[in-house]
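General statements about sequence and structure are easier to judge against a single worked case. No coordinates are needed to read the tokens, only the vocabulary itself. The sequence in question and its structure tokens are set out directly beneath this paragraph.
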Amino acid sequence: MAKTSSSDDSFNSCTKCFSEHNRVRPCLCQCTHCSKLFCFDCMKDHNDEIQQNIAQVSNRYNELKELINKKKDLITNETIKSKEQMNEWLKNYIANLILEKATIDADIEKAEKEAQVM
């Protein structure tokens, strides 16, 4: 994360020391991530902060990934359940239609026989 500054940078002060601690220390490192200049102590602190941020982002990513997988499983399971319910409903509906058709056919036959008798 850090590279050693050249001798030309030795007159620059540490960014963190100057802004947070109101002190002047020569910068000895430059962060390759943000290009800020730091003394060794502040560079370690800065690196620790970055590592902590990376860990937090990684944890959040893993939590979101797990949540997405749970939601995908829920959607898949609910879809399967809905298809099964629809198939069962259609089977019952078709069975009722067949029974109704048989009843109508029987009524028509009965009416035809009665019409022939008259």
In short: DSSP finds two helices and three strands in the chain. The CA atoms of residues 59 and 65 lie 10 Å apart.
